[in-house]
Amino acid sequence: MAIRVLIVDDSSAVRLIVRRCLEQAEIRIGEIWEAGNGEEALGVLAERTADLILSDINMPKMDGIQLLSALKQDRRLASIPVVMLTTEAASQLVVGVIRMGAAGYIKKPFTPAQIQDKIAPLIKAGAQASMQNEVPMPQD
Which helix (H) or strand (E) element contains residue 88? Predict the structure, then answer.
């Protein structure tokens, strides 16, 4: 199953690095969309559905924490796993985003292996949940 990923970061260079890390990781990636901040991300999600969101925390207009809060308040988007990307070493910030519902975090700078290690379990859990929600096909 190929997953659809939304990368949210105000730096186009970081978005490119994340994209390349996803492509190098041993994960089947379908479509990848990008947004420069939380507002843009919500705009993308108004038109598309993502299976995973990788979001920076510190961004202009709408930061990652505000984006996470908005996602968790929207019934359609609340179940999308969000992994926060951060340079922040402050454990209080990391604990805060986990309490808000983030599926995890990755500290910048990161490697493709770190991205794979963090998101592979989320993808596996999502695939299992989607298989459980499938309607069985009628047997002849």
Answer: none
Domains observed in the chain: 3-126 (3.40.50.2300)
CA distance 86 to 57: 6
Contacts of the segment 128-131: beta carbons below 8 A, 24+ positions apart: 130/1
DSSP label at residue 112: H
Distances, alpha carbon 60 to alpha carbons 20, 28, 37, 46, 51, in Å = 24, 31, 7, 20, 24
Q: What is the pTM (predicted TM-score) of this model?
A: 0.86
Contact 65, 96 (CB under 8 A): yes
Please report, in tens digits, the pLDDT of each residue of the chain (140 residues total). 688 999 999 999 999 999 988 888 777 888 999 999 999 999 999 999 999 999 999 999 999 999 999 999 999 999 999 999 988 766 788 888 999 999 999 988 888 888 888 888 887 765 444 433 333 333 44
Rounded Cα–Cα distance for residues 54 and 62 (Å)? 15
